[in-house]
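Researcher: Next entry: Semaphorin-3G isoform X1 (Hipposideros armiger).
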Amino acid sequence: MVPMAWAICCLLGGLLLCGGSPSPGPSVPRLRLSYRDLLSANRSAIFLGPRGSLGLRAMYLDEYRDRLFLGGRDTIYSLRLDQAWPDPREAVFQVLWPPQPGQKEECVQKGRDPLMECANFVRVLQPYNRTHLLTCGTGAFQPTCALMAVGHRGEHVLRLEPSSVESGRGRCPHEPSRPFASTFVGGELYTGLTADFLGREAMIFRSGGPRPALRSDSDQNLLHDPRFVMAARIADNSDQNDDKVYFFFSETVPSPDGGPGHVTVSRVGRVCVNDAGGQRVLVNKWSTFLKARLVCSVPGPGGAETHFDQLEDVFLLWPKTGKSLEVYALFSTVSAVFQGFAVCLYHMADIWEVFRGPFAHQDGPQHQWGPYGGKVPFPRPGVCPSKMTAQPGRPFGSTKDYPDEVLQFARAHPLMFQQVRPRQGRPVLVKTHLAQQLRQIVVDRVEAEDGTYDVIFLGTDSGSVLKIMALQSGGSAEPEEVVLEELQVFKVPTAITEMEISVKRQMLYVGSKLGVAWLQLHQCETYGSACAECCLARDPYCAWDGTSCTRYRPGTSKRRFRRQDIRHGNPALQCLGQSQDEEAAGLLATTTVYGMEHNSTFLECLPKSPQAAVRWFLQRPGDEGPDQQVKTDERVLQTEHGLLFRRLSRLDAGIYTCTTLEHGFSQTVVRLALEVIAATQLSSLCPRGLRPEERPAQGGLASTPPKAWYKDILQLIGFANLPRVDEYCERMWCSSRSRGKQAKGKSWAGLELGKKVKSRMQAERNRTPREVEAT
Ligand SMILES: *[C@@H]1O[C@H](CO)[C@@H](O)[C@H](O)[C@H]1NC(C)=O
Ligand SMILES: *[C@@H]1O[C@H](CO)[C@@H](O)[C@H](O)[C@H]1NC(C)=O
Ligand SMILES: CC(=O)N[C@H]1CO[C@H](CO)[C@@H](O)[C@@H]1O
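Model: Predicted structure:
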């Protein structure tokens, strides 16, 4: 570690104060990596397209073809997953797909924004068959669909089939940004959207196959201003006839207790894949649609609950065989006063349970909702025609066979009475007082040495990704939040709108309107080169293998050498006898630094993690007993990057130790012996011509201080430090020069510095003394 005491001399004029010592909270990430950090470490790469912005609206990760398909503005892109991205010639295919001639003009005439709305924003990219994708775009407010040839696996094809272009009404919204969800099942596209030009006609729509299109019954107002988030086919059991498509969305509904006003609630809704509508009632309308409320709230004292009602995103965690599907959902608050986010976890089995329960019933618009207590007709509304409904003598092979009574009931009772509650009855994660908003969620279930952990990746509206764990300790206690990393993926703040994970490639694909990035899920060496650092990181992807922090792979042979402790992050236990740590702890060399009496001096200490609490200790010459913690005041300040003496006193001399305390583990980062050169000593040693205030303004002639100057100082402090003294003198000399330049500025004025100082110190450190002279 290079002591910074002298470098800082050069910065005096611009140096400002950071304020008190850092006090890390639980939401501080262990590691914070900038856009530059990520690029330079090959942790991520970005594709922004030839124009610097894709206008991205859809993303489809195709692991079968090893491709990432992107739907942008008037363009579809295909990126190869197995090649470096920044090379546009090799890796990118693109197909232009602008609106049909005349559509753009028509769109502008209707009063839409020519730039932001009157283009073809591609919003649907779904696998159609083994050689084609189904793709739909807004078509300048005239939704259009087409098939896109992408070839068999291994072929590199991207071609729009001109003969397949057709209207996309009901399959794609008119607007580029309105919430929308779609999924392609058995040759048909299921969409949740508003299907008209004005964006008022909300529906769930199915089309594209040989069957007649099916839509929501608009008479009954089954959907209230919905914001669709996601759609997916989920098999409820082994009977394929019972498969359903589930929709996750928020609605703004009339106040449920019959009072005035509206409230936002989140929903899970579903329809049967084999729904064919009714014969006399609900013709070409859904006959199996049901919905239930998804609750995500924090229980408070006296039954008061804090609700997170606006659904932002959903991630389905598909099980290894035999287990129930798990649903991770990200919510935000609707309140104007309190902004917060929560992640709730639901088991599919709990959702099924609610759909098997009582229907919600209301005697009239002004009445309270209650459970329907009367007789429910057979087949039970919402049940798919399947083994369940096919009883002897009553062959309900299609919803068209369902009695009118059943369809009437379904139409009048689309809502379940019970609500879907999260696992543990509370969120796994709550984030308030965040600088950013959370938009996207992806979860990876990771096997570690001491158990299985869900690593949650959250995409923010400022272009960053948070990597977080919520550790469930036994009992009903709140989960412990461990923020592993904060990764600034995009250079400029931009909301993350798409996020896909490839567990096979250990990659996250992150999209914003600007472009798309890949991001490695982990890069263990970033945590440091010591066992303790690896252990403190508590990253389930990483373990100490005896020599470095590397990717943890469960079940490999060198098991007993691996050190990992996700639950407790206790390096004292894990890293006992690991050589590098002994070095870090005890055998750390002491570096001598020099400061000038009455001048300012800076002792640098940069802990690896912002989570660590930094403390400075001092042992004065001749002191016995334990080191004393350094007392800070307006003369001695503890900043984010070290200890700053604004005016050094002779009594400040001594050995300074900077330690970090993290998770009960204390580590010494630097040990510096500060020697104070008395003002009188220096003035007698320094030749008159070289005193800063008397030096010529241009300073050219004095660029090499006379040797005699050194010799006396060397005698003063011993020969061992020759190179350092050399440097000190150069720096000191330079410092007075730059100080001269900066004297006009306000020196100690502003108090908001932090990063500015750090980067200047970094720059300063990288310059050689020669360069310093040259300036
Ligand atoms: C980053 O990746 C590129 C291409 O994959 C490779 O050429 C380069 O050496 C890598 N750089 C580092 C620092 O690993
Ligand atoms: C996929 O569908 C297209 C359009 O109908 C058709 O031309 C193509 O042959 C199909 N591919 C396969 C593998 O069936
Ligand atoms: C800012 C400051 O106090 N500078 C002092 C540094 O030390 C020299 C030599 O003692 C003084 O002349 C400066 O005033």
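Model: Note for the record: The longest helix spans residues 722-742.
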